[in-house]
Please model this.
Amino acid sequence: MAWGFESPLGHFPQKIDRNHGAALVIGIILIMSLNNMASKHNYALPQAAKELLGGALARHGLRGTRHRELIFGSLLARRDHPTAEEVYVRVKAMAPTISLATVYNCLETLVQCGLVRAVNHERDATRYCPNLSEHAHFHDRRTGRIYDIDLPEDVVERLKELLPEGYQTDSLELNFHGQSAAKPKETADASGTPLNFS
Ligand SMILES: [Zn+2]
Model:
């Protein structure tokens, strides 16, 4: 399912004079711009993500809904660890009737299905991360932004070895708190691409 703005091109009159022609051209440019803007915020899920979502929901006895797809799509489109309120603002353009409570419910469902991680830092609002690979988070105290830090497999194994004998883990939460050394523009990547700290 794709969400976008309906183009009203079909409503223009068929016969137009010169002035109306100019207005029509401006109108078309405006509509193209709007469609362009809409496509930048088009949270339609790629087929693979749709199947991933559908499979995870089905395993939990749930079904895919437009809102669940839209919210999962918004998280995948901008992997900047948004809060529920931020997700709400992003998806509202595509689903004007959606409520904040629905956004919270959908996010909770995605977390329960293992598709999204809830990230909590101190007293900050919960943030949401769709990165399913093993990773830690770096919390920049100055900007409040959160970045993914890849955790190599051997590092994860060594961390698990720290556990007392007989203890097993099924999840690992590792958070770094601090401040980025460089200016935000040099290190920040709102797309969620892991930072390289080597
Ligand atoms: Zn993350």
